[in-house]
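Annotated sample (chain length 192).
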Amino acid sequence: MFNSAIRHGSLIFRFSFLLFFVTYGCSVMSAYVRPGFDKASVKKIAVLPFENYTEDKFAGQKMRAKVMIELLNSGFEVVEEGEVTRILKELKVYQVASITVSDIQELGKRLGIDAVVKGSTGEMEDKKGVALTYPEVSINLSILDAKSGDIVWSVSHSAGGPSFWTRHFGTEGDTLDKAAYKVVKESINTLK
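Output written by the structure step:
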C-alpha cells in the first residue's frame, strides 16, 4: 500500500512536470532581492526609459509601458513618463546607461520618489520556424533606491519558443504581446 502511494505521487509529479513544459515552452528567470529590502517602504516609483537591444525600435517603449501597468496593478504609485523624461533632460541624462548615483538621487528629490526602475529589452520578436511562428521575449529590470542609488531588486527573465502543442500539432500559441505581458507579470511577481 505504501509503495502504491509513492508510485501514485511520483506519477502525479511527472505528469505535472510534463504539463508545465507542454503548456509553457521555454522560460528562464533569475531574481535578486537585497537582504533586508522591504517592498512596503517603496510607495512611489519612476520608471526610466528602457534600453532597447532589439531590432524593433519601439520595443523598449512597449516594455516600459507594460512594466508601468504591472507596477500600478501591484499597488505602486508610478510617476508619469513625460515627467520622468523632462527631469532627465534637465539633468542632461541622454542615455539611461550613463545615469549616475547622483542623477538617481536628484530624480528622487525632484519627483518625490522612493525608487527608480531601470530596464532593458533584450529580445521581443516573433521567430519563424519551418512551419510555425512563436514569440521570444527577454527583459532585465532593476529597482534602485532613490536615496542611495543601490540596487535593491533585480530580475532577468526570458521566455518563448513554441509550446509542445504548437511544435507537434500546429496549434496557435501566445501572441507576442501576450508573451511580453506574461514575462513582465512573472518578473514583477518576484517582488511579492
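Annotation: The chain has one domain: 25-191.
Annotation: Strands lie at 26-33, 44-47, 51-52, 77-78, 115-128, 133-145, 151-160.
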